[in-house]
Amino acid sequence: MNKVLILSGAGLSAESGIRTFRSNNGMWEEHNVMEVCSVQGFIQDRQLVLDFYDKRRKDISDKLPNDSHFMISGLKEKYPGNITVMTQNVDDLLEKSGCKEVIHLHGKLRELKCEVCGNEFDIEYRSIKEFSECPECKSHSLRHNVVMFGEPAPMYQRLYNELMKTDLLVIIGTSGEVLPVSQFASYTRYSILNNLDKSFAIDDSIFTYTFYERATTAASKIKKIISEYFETGKI
Ligand SMILES: [Zn+2]
């Protein structure tokens, strides 16, 4: 079966006004990244980290998906069994664009996670302070459901399993500093790269097509290539 995997990162949501630390020299809002995005930081100051994710959750409540999100959701709707949508983003803009079955590799801002039983649940854009216990096991140990540096990302196994089935890999808006995307591209027959700028962490000679431009302007070109792929089996 021909399989397309669309893997996105911060560049997908940047034009919707969602900022991440990579756009700002290791700072995320007013914080050092390791203070708010690492297991060590969480142990040092749990409340600071929980408050930080409360603010980020509130920040995304009024953000809207852009043309690139809609391009992905449209293709997923047209070819539901042949496209897998994965993202490193913790926002909900793909879902807001109507995309089904989005796999979030680094968790979701809108969710809390129980540290006792592992239950994950949606709280939309509300504060963790409104939730005193886990709906499943009633424990009081709740946290944000975003993967931090220093802890495993359970969905990576799913990513590697998908890659083995992928014929066309589409990378949108990721610098390759967290995930080795050019290595991924070497596993697949065809691949497309769309980033705003060249990244030192990506060997772009491996990709079949590269688009160095905004995700929204590349969207129609990527859509055309994927549609042709489904018609002809090649790009
Ligand atoms: Zn629980």
Q: What do you see in this structure?
A:
The chain is of the alpha/beta class and 235 residues long. It folds into two domains: 4-17 and 64-106 and 152-232, Rossmann fold; 19-62 and 107-146, 2-Layer Sandwich (SIR2/SIRT2 'Small Domain'), CATH 3.30.1600.10. Helix content is 34%, strand content 20%. The chain contains nine helices and eleven strands. It has helices spanning 10-14, 33-37, 39-44, 46-59, 67-78, 93-96, 156-165, 181-187, 215-232, and strands at 4-8, 27-28, 31-32, 83-87, 102-104, 107-114, 120-122, 142-146, 168-172, 190-195, 209-212. The strands form three sheets. A six-stranded parallel β-sheet has the order 5-4-1-9-10-11, with helices on both faces. α5 (67-78) packs parallel to α9. Bound molecules: zinc ion.
